[in-house]
Structure formats: C-alpha cells, structure tokens
Amino acid sequence: MISESGIRQLKVTDKTDQSYNKYVLLDLIGTGGMAEVYRAKLIGQRGFEKPLVIKQLLAEVAGNAEVVENFIDEARLAALLQHENIACVYDFGEQDGSYFIAMEYLFGKDLHSVMGQAKSSGGTVGVSLSLYIVAQICAGMDYAHTLIDMQQQPLHIIHRDLTPHNVFLTYEGKIKIIDFGVAQAELFDNRTRAGVIKGKVSYMSPEQLIEGDVDARSDIFSIGILLYEMLSGVRMYQGDTATLIRKCINVEYLPIEEVLQDLDPAVCEILHKALEKDKEDRYKSCGEMLDDINDYFFKQGLRPSNKEVKILLFDLFRADYETEIQRLVPDEIAKTTTTTGEPLGDDDKTVIVGSPYAKIRFVNKIMGSRGALLVGLPTVISVVVLVVVYMVFTGSRATKNATFAGIFPQSVVNIQPLLVPVELEKEINDEDIMARAVEILLGKAEKALAENKLTVPRGDSAFTYYKNVLELDPENSAARDGMGTIAEMYAIAAEKKLSENDVRAAGERIKKGLGVMATNVRLLTLQRQIAHREQAEIDALLAKAKIAFAANRYTRPAANCAYHYYQAINRIRPGSLAVKKGLLAIADRYARMGDKALQNLNLTKARRVVALGLGVMPQHPGLLELQDDLQKSKPAIFVKGLIRSLRPLFQ
Predict the structure, then answer these.
(1) Of the candidates 519, 545, 570, which is a domain's last residue?
(2) Could you report the per-residue pLDDT of 425-457, keeping only the tens digit for each?
C-alpha cells in the first residue's frame, strides 16, 4: 500500500505482497546513528507468524554511499555466520530506498543489563557462570575467526565491538553474540578509513585504539574485559574520556586479585593471559582460551550449563519477564493507538517503514522525563515541539509557514494539514525548547565520544553534534570543551604513532585533529616536530639515492637503488620536485643505454633497459621512441640502428 506521501506501508490485513509486506513492524526497540531496530513479525500463509527483529537504515543516511555499503556488508557477513552462539540473520532487502535486515528475535537481556541488575541486587554474575558465558562467547568467536569461504580461503572475521551490549542472554539460557556492524572481514574491501577507529573505547584492545589494524587477538582482549567485569562487578577502566584513552593504551586497571582476594589463581591466570598488553603474549585463538576454561571446569568438577543462565535471568528479571511475555501476543497490532490515545480503526492499522513519525516518536522517547512535560501542553503546542526537535536532528530549519503534512503522514496520526499559528511562532524559538535540543545533542556527542566516533561517520560523530550545538548556542562551554577533547584524542593517537616511528600515520591524525581545532597547541607542536623529522628523513634518503645513482644502481637491487629511495621520499612528501628530477635522471640514463644497445644491434639488452626505464617514467619521450623502434621488423630495426649510430655526425 502506498500512502499519499509516497511511503510504502506495511498493512496488517494485506498479506498478498509477500515480497515486501511479509514483515509487520510492532514497536521501536531502539535507534542508533545509522539504523532503527524494530520488534516485528513475519506473516506467512494460513496464519503463519514468526517473531523477529528488523534493523532498518535511517532515511537520512540512505544517500550516503559509504554507510549503505557498510550496511550491506554487515548483512552479507552476518548471513555467513551460522552458529548457535551468534544471532541469526534471515533476510536482507530494500524497500522504497530503505535497506533492512531481518534478524532472529532474542527474548532475554543483554549482558550489560544482567551485570547492572546483579550489582543492584548486591551481587555479581559469579565465577562459574562468568566463565561459562565467556566460554560460549569464545566458541562463537572462534567459529567466526576461523570461518572460510567457498574457495576454502579464510575470511579472518574480527568483531571489533565485543561489549556487554553486544552479548545477549536469552530466557532459555542461550548466549548470543550480536551486532557485527563494525566487523572486519577479508570478504569485503577494507572501507575503514585511515585514522578511523571503530568500537567502544572501554572495551578496545590497546592495538585497536592505537593502530586500528587488528586480528583475532584484539577480540580476545575484549572478551577478557567482559570476564573481568562479570567477575568483579565493576568497570575495568574508569574515568573521563581522556583518562579512559590513556588507561586503554597503557592497559592500566586494578588487578583482579585486589578486587577479589579469594579468587582461584587458575581463573586469574586465564584472565591475565587474555588481557596481556602485548598481543604476542595473549591467547593465540579463542579456541585456546576455551580449552583452558574447559580444563578448569574439569579439574574443579564443575558442569555449568544453560540451566544456570535461565535461573539467573529469572531471579534477576522475573517481573520484566512477565511484562515482556505479554508483548509477544499475536494481536499486538490491534492494541496500537494514535497520538491522541484512541485505538486505530481498521483502515489505520499501518506501520510506515522509514517514516519521519517513527523518528519523532523516538526523539520523544529519548527525552525521557522531559518528554512527559509535553503531555500537559495543548495538543497543537506538543506537535510544534516535536516538529522543532525533529528539525534540529535532521538539520532542517523551521519556517514560519511549515506544514505538518510532510512531517506526520495523515494515514498514521489523523492530523489534518494546518499552518503554525502566528501566535505560536515564538514558541518555536523558545529558549526552553532550544535548551532541550542542545541537551539532547550534547548527550549524543558524549555517547559518540565514548564510542570513539570522533569525526566520522559524518552524521553520527562527536564533532558533528558539538558543531550543531555551537550553531544553536555559540558560547556553549560544554561543546567547546568537547571540541578540545576531540583534538586532544587525536594528539594522543599522533604521539603514539610518532613513538612507533610511523610518521605518516601520525600526520594523518594531526590533520584530522587540526580540522576540529586549528589552534590546538599540542597538535601544532606535533606538526612542527613531524615537519623536522620528515625533512631529516628526506635528506638522508636523497643522500642514499645520490650514492646509488653514482654506483649505477638505478632500479636494482630493489631495496638499495636510487628508484627505491626516490619512491620512499614520494611516500613522505608526494609531488616532491627532487623526486621528479631524480626519476627523470634515471629514465634518461636508461634511454641512453637503450640507444647505445640499439646502435650495436643488441636487441635483447635494448628491450630490457627500455622496459626498466618505462617502469620508472612511463611517458618518457626517448624511451617511448625506442620502444616503437624495437617493435619494427628486423630490417627496419637495422636501419634505425644505423641511423642512430650516424646521428652524432649530423648534430
């Protein structure tokens, strides 16, 4: 069904179009920077229904080619993963320009909620159960890490975001790893841009935060953090963002023995090996860590199972279970109401995929207790407030004659198109409303900062949110401090790269940091240091190139020739005039050697040196002329050689 606004609707009673309308969205579970997640159900023939989850790309990022490609990659990657400890993906599709993934519906709680509730109840997850949960995570990740494609080639899948929010415990006692949205696999092009670190800082391995280029051992470190926090009941890394980054880089945390003084040394040994700062000292694979956990269970005579997980969840969330089970009743859609609180009529039982209404509903939801303030306002003012907040998030600007028709589809909320009354214009610019919008944006900025989304993705980065705040409130100190924090984080990353003599990577991070705050003293100092180091390195390479050229080592040996050193300089300073002159000198020398070989009719040598010269400078005129001459017939080559030998007599 297509509404007047052109948006496809999933109609409850319409089960004929199985290619599009087989999914019915029930309610919004959550929204991130790139996608919305809905609880939904699959409708089939003869009353068949199956609960599932729909993850749908947000309309405002659907035009971003990189975001769409990453979303598609996530779907393709998840479709390959078929393991009892990894959430299953059923379907992937596109509807009216909006991509979606249909996933397994998990009835339970994520590990973050479990640990939080356990702590609120005065306890922890417990040693045996913590190890059991980690063992299941290791089993799932060992499968992912060692997965091969149809050509028997390893895919080297790395999750990179193993946090308590991405480990799910079901009421049946199953452990599921979810959200491979930032995973890395060799199945796809590596689209992670230089300087972009994906994942949540508090659960990163030091090499992921510093280098970004990781392997399976990075996931093992993250699993170690999960084990630490389940055992101790406290965060392994604590502090503000800058402190967290420093601690993560240096792996500074309170030893588990000081938190749990009676913890079995064998458990401490497993934990310490997973949390080794140097990845070479860590477990080589999740399978190796799993073996050690199973050995511990065997020696202790322990046999933990999913039954203990079920008991834990029911003990912690009995009340939640009773409430949540009611949400799974088949007639859920029939209970849907309009914004006025009245039940929808039969003609209005629709859920709009990707509609702005769903986004506004989510904005109202994330405002928390502030959202309750809207309930007491007159209906029209409530709508105005929602429109303003929506426009803040989508980057739109309120206009004096804005209509509601484009914001709220009539078929959903039954609001007739109308103009904003003149007497309410000042409400749109009311300081209280703007303050709430700024507060929400600052919250999003802090979340992005904690997840190390500094300047990318553009639509969901700390920089973007702080910039939006400053557009609304140019003197906002929190946003200005936030910009400074981003610059400092790039400075820390650049310093680390410099300590590893990776000058190019340090320069990239400095460039990003100065793009956020051009006056940052630390970054400017680092920039000057790099300039001095680069010049010193270039001078040394030029000296080596000169020596190699004088010794006739033009392109051989590969690691000790003039061409090699000029290429190294070009990587440091692309477009260098010294490099252009040096390469031209090499090509000229090969051209003279080729000309002499042709005069002597040494065609084999002539072809070889011409090929070497064109490898250095493909458009060199003299070499191209020689190449053309060498492709002629033997008599013609003889004539050309004779002409070349006589040429000096006429010059």
Answers:
(1) 519
(2) 444 444 566 788 888 999 999 999 999 999 988
